[in-house]
Amino acid sequence: MAETAYWEAIRRAHDEEMARDPLVIAMGEDIGVAGGTYKATSGLYEKYGETRIVDCPISENSYTGIGIGASMTGMRPVIEIMSINFALLALDTIVNAAAKIRYMSGGQIACPIVMRTPGGTAHQLAAQHSARLARMFMSTSGLRVVTPRGPLDAYGMLKSAIRSNDPVIIIEHEQMYNLKEDIPDEEYFRPLEGAEVVREGSDITLIGYNYSVHLCLQAAERLAKDGISAEVVDLRSLKPIDRETIRKSVEKTHKVLVAEEDEAPVGVGSEIITGIMEDCFFALDSQPVRIHAADVPVPYNHKLEKAAIPNADDVYHGALKVMGKI
Amino acid sequence: MSDADKKRLLREMIFFRRFEDRTFEAYMERKIGGFLHLYSGQEAVATGVLEQAVVGKGSENDYVITGYRDHIHAIKTGAPPREVMAELYGKETGSSKGRGGSMHIFDASQNFMGGYALVGQPFPLAAGLALGCKHKGTKQIAICFLGDGANNQGTFHETMNMAAIWDLPVLFVCENNGYAIGTHIDRSTAQPDQYKRVDQAYNMKSSQHDGMDIDNVMEAAKTAIDYVRNESKPYFIEFMTYRFRGHSMSDAKGYRTKEEEAEWEKRDPIKIYSKKLIEAGIVKQADIKAMEKEIDDEIENDIIKFAEESPEPKVEELTKYVLDDNPDPRWIGPLQK
Ligand SMILES: Cc1ncc(C[n+]2csc(CCOP(=O)(O)OP(=O)(O)O)c2C)c(N)n1
Ligand SMILES: [Mg+2]
């Protein structure tokens, strides 16, 4: 076991997979000579050279498309998109090509690409650098969308994503790259599917993914002081969603809150709560609550930004509402 | 090229014309649905270029990719015509098991990597196929056929740049038929000579040629393909051509004149090549008539029959092929609790 930062975990996964399989390459802006915006490929250019750590011009749609084309020949490109906001430029090749080629070809051609990108707010980056967009990708057939909450998953899920035969989008988070956690020294894999109960409890289920899992965990600490036992579920995968784990937890606690950093309309919470209505409506003792961002472009001013983006306090108060305490 | 090969080439082009004509009829009979874009008039381009590439040899083939006007490119690369027709009929025996249709013919066994509906999307995919070839050190190249209209997409510029900086072995074939649906190139494109849009801008070799005379196409394509393969560098080749039919099926062609159409029809690639071979004494008019008869019989009694009689996909298999249907649980899970 060694304490490892989120970015180091990603770097290690790249390094091991590239050492194992010459068909694994990484592509993206500033990932090579410059070492990567979040250091996720630092030192690898020196080790693997420019044909395997490929510095790309600022052409998101087409370098993603080149990665997809290469994957159709059996290569395993890992594409870093500097920010999920810029991934919008690559929507054509992701949504119209990568997600559909297997199906359109009647199963003949796979597109085993991995696209990693930070999706979330940091501090005062304003409207064009604070998109979350998880909800947009999770509605596309033919993609896998995963959201590692910490180094354990960041390493283990990237390894799995590289080996899987499907296009996988890994949504990271600007505020998590320096998050540290002990992870095993020996190689391991964390599967792309399956939600996880990260804190057991009996009174209420708090569901999060990516950074919002941490908000749920912080809220659960506070709730414990009030004598409320909260169970925290990390979705881990937004596509597909593990409804079974959610149902089991809700049948145990009878109360549920979903916390997301995305805006609410047609959001992650809408999908999760609809699933709960379909799967275990009669297990609920009270109305579910969604904690989510305000329906505005993210403001620059720090007070406005704080008001727009949910925090642990919001999750805590939302949980009290579900419990009928406020 | 031997006389027998010349005769074969003529037969292929006639076959391609008759094949498309027959899909037109099947569309009118409502046997084929959706959009249907026919290649009639442009046959010399795909036939001539791919004649110079490695095709019909399965996994050794060069990679070929194109837009939605893809039936003939697929067949010339090696896709069985009956499977292409069955695909148009939406059958399980079709090239893409009835999931793709006219615009999405795929034959991975022949490295035909598909037809795509998004104009300009194949540019980067082609460069990626070339990157795969280069990375693995095979002698294969990627060949991307697209129209003149596609060059107004951002992917054109982005991909030309990357293909050039990374020395990717990809041949971009621009089939300049003068129109993007109903918009003439002079009204959409500041530089109507497409090959001029890459040489200075992206430091890439490029050239422009007549695309109606297959001899001409083959000669130009050979130079370009040799360059791409031997130098491992991209090349952009433009062929001036014309589509004889509408853009797709519901096109009244109100945007072009009868005179213009008549001018180009004089340069019908099949007429040009027939005339040459007759003059050289390689075929007689009667041989061509016999060829046409034989082709029509094959289309009717083999290809159409196969498409008609094949089963449709099973509705129970609606969600097959969305993701890997046999995923490895070590990577996919679900998570063990
Ligand atoms: C991204 C995109 N925009 C618009 C269309 C609609 N569309 C289909 S074909 C076409 C014209 C393309 O012309 P060109 O590239 O010259 O090819 P041609 O049809 O002449 O072979 C257009 C605008 C599309 N399919 N994709
Ligand atoms: Mg055109």
Write the layout of secondary structure elements.
The complex is a heterodimer of chains A (326) and B (337).
Chain A: E1 2-5, H1 6-20, E2 24-28, H2 44-48, E3 53-55, H3 60-71, E4 76-80, H4 84-87, H5 91-98, H6 101-104, E5 114-118, H7 134-137, E6 144-146, H8 151-163, E7 168-172, E8 180-183, E9 196-199, E10 204-208, H9 212-225, E11 230-234, E12 237-239, H10 243-253, E13 256-263, H11 268-280, E14 289-293, H12 302-308, H13 312-322
Parallel strand pairs in A: 2-3, 2-4, 4-5, 5-7, 6-7, 10-11, 10-13, 13-14
Antiparallel strand pairs in A: 1-8, 6-12, 9-11
Helix pairs in contact in A: 1-8, 3-5, 9-13, 10-11
Chain B: H1 3-28, H2 43-51, E1 63-66, H3 71-77, H4 81-88, E2 112-115, H5 122-136, E3 142-147, H6 154-165, E4 170-176, E5 179-180, E6 183-184, H7 185-188, H8 199-202, E7 205-210, H9 214-231, E8 235-240, H10 258-265, H11 269-279, H12 285-309, H13 329-332
Parallel strand pairs in B: 1-2, 1-3, 3-4, 4-8, 7-8
Antiparallel strand pairs in B: 5-6
The complex binds thiamine diphosphate and magnesium ion.
How would you explain this protein's 3D organization?
The complex is a heterodimer of chains A (326) and B (337). Chain A is of the alpha/beta class and 326 residues long. Chain A has 2 domains: 2-183, 3-Layer(aba) Sandwich (Rossmann fold); 196-322, Rossmann fold. Chain A contains 13 helices and 14 strands. Chain A is globular, with a radius of gyration of 20 Å. Chain A starts with a strand and ends with a helix. Chain B has 337 residues and is α/β, with parallel strands linked by helices. Chain B has one domain (3-332): Thiamin diphosphate (ThDP)-binding fold, Pyr/PP domains (Rossmann fold), CATH 3.40.50. Chain B contains 13 helices and 8 strands. Chain B has helices spanning 3-28, 43-51, 71-77, 81-88, 122-136, 154-165, 185-188, 199-202, 214-231, 258-265, 269-279, 285-309, 329-332, and strands at residues 63-66, 112-115, 142-147, 170-176, 179-180, 183-184, 205-210, 235-240. In chain B, helix 2 (43-51) packs across helix 9. Chain B starts with a helix and ends in a 5-residue tail after the last helix. At the A-B interface, helix 3, helix 5, helix 6 and helix 8 of A face helix 5, helix 6 and helix 13 of B. Residues 147-149, 177, 179-180 of chain B line the site of magnesium ion.
